Amino acid sequence: MKKKKDITSLKNKVNDNSEDKCSKIVKVGEPIVHHTSGSATGTWMRDPLGLLGTGKIWYMDGFNGDQVLEFKDMDHFKGGEVAKTYTLPYKFDGTGSVVYGRYLYFNRANTTHIVKYDLVTEKIARETVIRVKPRKFSYEWGGYNTVDLSVDESGLWILYTYWSYNVAHLCVQLRDPLTLGKLQHYCFISSETRNKMGNAFVACGVVYCIDSYNSATTTINSAYDTATFSGNNPEIKFVNKFKYNSMVTYNPREKVLYAWDNNRQITYPLEFEDETKT
């Protein structure tokens, strides 16, 4: 019970401390390169709850492996000074892992299991199954991203592919970060098939789909609001500066996107609808 209260309190604190209330994204700024390292694909992130430190960075090279590197802060990350190396009990698939609180959530390799790994005890805390086919119908670039994870102001989201009538549909579920139980479920949220999307992420309860991963200039061409059960085609400009953007995820504390574009670890500043009205 205490852990649940702690996570709820931290989540509320993230929302309360945000300068801007939750609203829709209207602009994605130019990418900011923080470091160049690793493979063409990978994952890097901070914990939006800041439970283990707001500055810490976690880093997973490639789209299949068992190593997670931890860095004390951005300066140590840029200097390549690793604070800690974790060896996971299972390999991960994809570039959709997230850190939320003291836990790393990842897709167990060659399965559709979501694993909750405790970064403090270095043990598996919980595991659940998304009933879809593993390693099938990922994003356009491939990389075993059948199951993707995202975090926003609401909590932990799972993005995955539902195969129906020979069409790969994008679906999302909001999950309890403690039990991994399903809280909400939305499907058929974009007219574009999952295997034709560049990437997708959730911010302020809205699921955003990026049209291409390798076009230098593309768009967020689909947005589905889970609060109103409605979607639109915002056509927000999005720049893949290095033409191989394999990971895009939102950080609700910083109000930015984290991304990995052809071995560059980058962030994108965001402008929200309520900012344009002030």
UniProtKB/TrEMBL annotation:
Its main location: secreted. GO terms for biological process: signal transduction. Keywords: Secreted. This is Uncharacterized protein. GO terms for cellular component: extracellular space. It is found in: Secreted. The lineage of its organism: Eukaryota, Metazoa, Cnidaria, Anthozoa, Octocorallia. The keyword Secreted applies. PANTHER family: AMASSIN-3, OLFACTOMEDIN-RELATED. It comes from the Eukaryota. It holds the Pfam family OLF. InterPro entries: Olfac-like_dom, Olfactomedin-like_domain.
